[in-house]
Amino acid sequence: xxxxxxxxxxxxxxxxxxxxVFRQVHQIIVHDPQNxxxxxxxxxxxxxxxxxxxxxxxxxxxxxxxxNIIREESPYVFILSRGDYEFIIASFAILSIxxxxxxxxxxxxxxxxxxxxxxxxxxxILAGQDYLQLAAEVKEHAASHDLCVTVLPISIKVSxxxxxHSGCVKINPDMRVESHRPGVLLFTSGTSGPPKAxxxxxxxxxxxxxxxxxxxxxxxxxxxxISGMLPLISLPLRGARLxxxxxxxxxxxxxxxxGGVTILAGTPYIWTPMMKYFxxxxxxxxxxxxxAYIRGAQxxxxxxxxxxxxxxxxxxxxxGILGQKVKVAYGATEFGGYGTxxxxxxxxxxxxxxxxxxxxxxxxxxxxxxxxxLIKSPSLxxxxxxxxxxxxxxxxxxxxxxxxxxxxxxxxDYILDGRASGDFIKxxxxxxxxxxxxxxxxDLPFISEGCILQVPDSNNSGRVAALVRFEDSVKxxxxxxxxxFATYLQFLREHLARTLPAYMLPTVLRILQxxxxxxxxxxxxxxxxxxxxxxxxLSKDSELPTDVExxxxxxxxxxxxxxxxxxxxxQTNITSAL
Length: 578
Hints:
The chain is an alpha/beta fold. The chain is built from 15 helices and 28 strands. Residues 77-385 form the AMP-dependent synthetase/ligase domain.
């Protein structure tokens, strides 16, 4: 293989577009202070081509076809890196040889990584400088199971840089990668079952967010889930600026104050700490200093809350700061990004609203105006690796992906109702919607964080359980029953009863103590089964732990007058429902 081939890129839309912006845009496109990088396209292409050269020189020659494209039967190359400049260079280098990138968590164990390598039939890891030791441990563990793994350090900051006008980088018209081939493999978060290996084709980087030249995006999420990975690929293709930063609320607010940031997206676990930091540290500042932070936030062109449903108080806060710019976006690993998003004219009083389909996305509900969300889009995944049965089951006969999420329509907007399985608690004939109770819980001003879970009882039925952390001020409040520990559950029920019928109220409560955390995936989704196992384990006698508070309808009584729909019209079945 000659040196010239290293500068000949595949004839496909990704690299045609990349070469176009290379010749037209001269600003810094990646600011990565931790790696000491301020890269323009000249530096970007220099590093990309050097990493590509390393791949060609290090991988077995029989992995490539006559066009120097990696063979389709073994396209997967793993990346072990933060969501930073190293990851970006590794990703484009893999794509440039026809490969498919597989992001690994930087917290992964050698055993887990080895299993994933076996599963994907891959033998190559590109590792960032801070993760070479972990990669070496993965290699050693894999070798003990008869898998020979090649670990290649990700090369960046190569010099001298390429002159964009030299013409040394070009598209090879004969070097084609079929669009149906894998481009990226991601593992699902595992909140609704064992993680699946989700394969997207080479078209995976078609961003649903309209990115403009001059946009500045703050990248703070890990790349092994889709909302963290996509911007790292799509931003360099648009001539926009990507800044790698921390998710620390103080750092995010300081960067917003500096000005110029136009896109910020994150889960409620990003937006909520930022809200609390504002209340605790910024709101008390002199007006002139405070306004500098507010003006910076108001400079956002796009502000997305993603990953899980935000509670209404969070949306009210940010809409007060930003106006109607803050949007709720609904997506999934299988979607290839976002599927729906609220709009400027979405009714802000609609709870659990996920908005309307984005351009190019088609949504049907299985029962017409309600039911399971069925979705089709150009960026939809192609298959689950090694699981034809799961792939077939995931699609309807007309090619729509079965999301497993339930919704109904109000006007043009879709309202999330939970999942087809797992987001309802069955209590002796009652069907309690977890998301609805969780929204009401998180909207209480004295709740710092919390979730709703289904906990079994001695009758093998389900009970509505709340796992919460109170604000510190509440712990000093003594409410009824001479300040006994059970008063917290009564206190919680009475506040929730203002918006929920009685049959939906928690009958089990566990208060999180200092140092205890709600189990979550890296994308901040609650791992409900793990939370139940950790905080609500049943003894051999089917008893819950002593630090769990219980509501017994035979001995405990609510203080409000019974209402018509407290028991969904089944007023005679109160005790059995609990």
